[in-house]
Amino acid sequence: MAEVVRMPKMSDTMTEGVIAKWHKKVGDKVNSGDLIAEVETDKATMDFESYQEGTLLYIGPKEGDAVAIDAVIAVLGEEGEDYKALLDGGAAAPAKTEETKEESPAVAETAAPAGNAVSAEELGCTVITMPLLSDTMTEGVIAQWNFKVGDTIKSDDAIADVETDKATMEVTAYAEGTLLYIGVEAGSAAKVNDIIAIVGPAGTDVTPLLNQKPSGGAPKATTEDVKSEAVEAKSHAAPAASSNEDDSRVKASPLARKIAKDKGINLNDVKGSADGGRIVKKDVEGFTPSAKTETPKTAASSSAPAQDAKSITLPQYIGEEKYTEQNVSQMRKTIARRLGESLFTAPHFYLTISVDMDNAMAARGQINDVAPVKVSFNDIVIKAVAIALKQHPAVNSSWRGDKIRFNEHVNVGVAMAVEDGLLVPVVRFADGKSLSHISAEVKEYGQKAKAKKLQPADWEGSTFTVSNLGMFGIDEFTSIINSPDGAILSVGAIQQVPVVKGGAVVPGNVMKLTLGCDHRVVDGATGAAFLQTLKGLLEAPIRLLA
Question: Domain named Lipoyl-binding: which ranges (predicted)?
Fold first, then answer.
């Protein structure tokens, strides 16, 4: 019976996925657990494993195409089976189900006396296994079941919430029928590809399917096949890498290791770009083994003319024009879309002010002598911004089409750079929190951002944004407003410059602040008044504790 394969929801914010690569082609045999494609989501590129078995009859989107969640991307079934009805809307599905029901008694009669293994297809059932929801996931915890045994399931129903190493995600059934079996209780963990549920016709006895699990006939054969393939791959790759060291202990992702093995690349020669030097897919695909041998030749060829033509005073340098291109990630697409909408929709204007930070530097040193956590200058700026916003509600506002919303609460977004782009977690009700509280919260957000564990609730709901590039030595800069906020503050570095105090030129510590405003809600005088208040708070930081 032919079955459709749909684009899964691989993250909580995913709305579509891009087919990065197909690992199977039409006509190939596909087993449950086989890697059939790589899907680029808004968070990462993940492996997509098949939960069904059969022949790959149809592939919809091409590599590089974007596909909405739950859209059909492939069809699996028996070789030569007509699948067009499924693409037209699944009209043939009920007929197939009836045929399966008619055939199932005969199958049961023959299978029961002989004691042979029974497949899920013969019973008309679909086995749901723990999916691989992230590239580093080895097991998942069932956070909650959304259905109970006996409930009717549709193919697009989220039957359970699974907690992975990155976030809590939904598991879609991709099957229709009655929920016959739940294998893992809520709160318990299951390894990837372990059976967590079975869906099929009401009243079907799934005991034969469960009894097959300990015997492990088919999986064992599959494991042996994989081992034999690995041995063959090693034997083929051995001549090419005989002079290199064993790369089994090199830190690399499973996908990168597989690609390297297929291409005969020794991972000892590849430089990793991920955390801790870990090698990922792009490192292997961008690796050129011939570079080592070509470099001496190029040097020799360029030095030869220099030796022959002694009259030439300037050495001749021959360069090569080259470049690389990569597909735009889902996160980068979102950043481009949102910032483009903000810049070309909201009329921006900018105001810059210089702040004497001598008192703030002295106050920070005294605070850190007694504070439970280290307080940074950025934490002091966030606190001062929150207090200033309470005094200038027009800056703490947003454009809503035919209305302007004046927020009475202060939620300060803190721009943070991550590997693939930019995230803006929110310090909520910052005006009521202490400097130590703000510091601890921002540090926690920073750790979550690096580990890619920030949830949508962490970055939603800001009323104002602070962006700080002072740690990079940037004197001043302008930022694009983080819609729907009405303004954003750009914080530069503290610079030691000569200043005039008491009629004398003395060394001073000055920081420049630039306020980007949406002119639809913030006028020039309003923004200037806000900066004056902010400047007063930073130059007399004792007022932050009042």
Answer: 2-77, 125-200
